[in-house]
Every structure is written in structure tokens, then in C-alpha cells.
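Lab notebook, bench 4. The sequencing result for the construct came back, and we need a structural model before the next group meeting so we can plan mutations. Quick request posted to the team channel:

Model the 3D structure of this chain.
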Amino acid sequence: MRPLPRIMVAPNGARRTKADHPALPITVNEIVACAKECYAAGADGLHAHIRDSSGGHLLDADQYRHLVSRVQEAVPKMAIQITTEAVGIYDPDTQMSIALTSGAEMVSASTREINRAGPSKARAFYQKAQESGIAVQHILYERDDCRILEDTIGRSALADPDLQIIFVLGSYGDNRDAAPSDLDVFLSWMDEQEISPDWAVCAFGQAEVACLLKAVSHGGKCRVGFENSMVLSDGNVASSNAEKVTDLLASLANVEHPD
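Done. Here's the predicted structure in C-alpha cell form:
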């Protein structure tokens, strides 16, 4: 199973548009160009969203395969993860089907969204993904999502160090900015469960970099980019996703990693 990249860039997300930032990549060509710039800046992974012809959120296996192929051609060493985010549009069966048929080796999936299909279907999906060599990164937004994951995958899978998790701090929908202290509930959960998964953090708002620095200091990895925040560590608006990556790496230079 391919491990999570140390720095994954999330350049667009499902909701933002060029009205939010003119450098936000929407088309496949723009996403590929952004991936090249971010890889050169130091990102080793791409968290990919695709859009429809009107710029709206899209889950489509053929379109994902096209994007994955284009990015692999342009940046062969960059890991590519696709989203299965519902955004209130797609049902769990569609999300699971997209994850299994998109041609991507890495997918992110909200634990609470997938579990709406029922625990047995969710478990079958996770098993099928594993058998197919697809790494599912479980998206956890709050402590209750941790409980859902525990109940769905079981103790053995929960204790697997290859288990991929991303903790989401803050939110876009209710305009709630993250704070580094938001990570504490997830750190406590991992300690209580005595698990050491392959985990990462993304954080919405002005404190994105501060949250990511705390994650790294506790052994986590980072997802950074315009999906979550458009500002740099100094509070200024970034000119591009690549500048976000450069800014994060400069900040990480002073972070002490755990033994």
C-alpha cells in the first residue's frame, strides 16, 4: 500500500471558484500545471477534485482517469489521491463506485458519508479497495467519526500502521476556522486506542500552517492548499498553491519531529 505523502497539496476543493482566487485551478490543464508547480516547490502528493463544465463539483470515473493519466505523465513521481466527497450531491453507492473504478491508487473518503450505506456495505467497500491495491484515507471531522471508524473496520484494521487517516480541523461549510488545539481530541483518541496510523491533517482558515506544524510535531503529515486556506503563515494572501507549499516547508524547517 502506498504511504501517504509527507506534503499533499489540495489546490481547489469542491466549492471555491476563481472569484475566491484567480489562480485557483479548475480545468484539467490548470490542475496539471498546478501539480507540476507544487511538485517543484516540494509537494509529493496531489489531492484532486474535478469540476463539471459549469465549475461545479463532480465525481466521474472517466474524468478522474483522464486527470490521473495527465498528472502521471506530467509529474511521474507525484502521488495522486482523488476525493469521493459528496458535497450533498452524491450518495454512498456512487462514492464507493467512483473510488473503485477511477484508476487512482489513493482515494479519500469521509467515514460518516460512506457509513450511510450501512456498516456491512462500508466494510465490504474497504475490503474491496484493499484487495484492489487502493489506499483509502478515512476522513474524520470529529470524535464521533472516530467511533464510527472503530465500529466499522474493527480493532485489527484500526491497529494497522498502514491505516490512512486525515483529521479535518475547522470547516468550510459553517465558516469555522481551525485552531491548533482542535487537534488535541484526535491525538487523545490515538493515545487511548494505542494506535499509530499513517495520519495527516488539513485545516481551514488563517491558522492552517500553525495547525500543520503541530501535526508534524506529533508525527503527522500535511495537506495544504487553496481548498482549505488561501493565506500564508504571515497572514498575507498567497499568489498560488505553489507558494503555499514553499511557505509551509520554510515553516517546517524549525519544527522538531518526534523520535
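The chain is about 40% helix and 15% strand.
Will bring this to the meeting.
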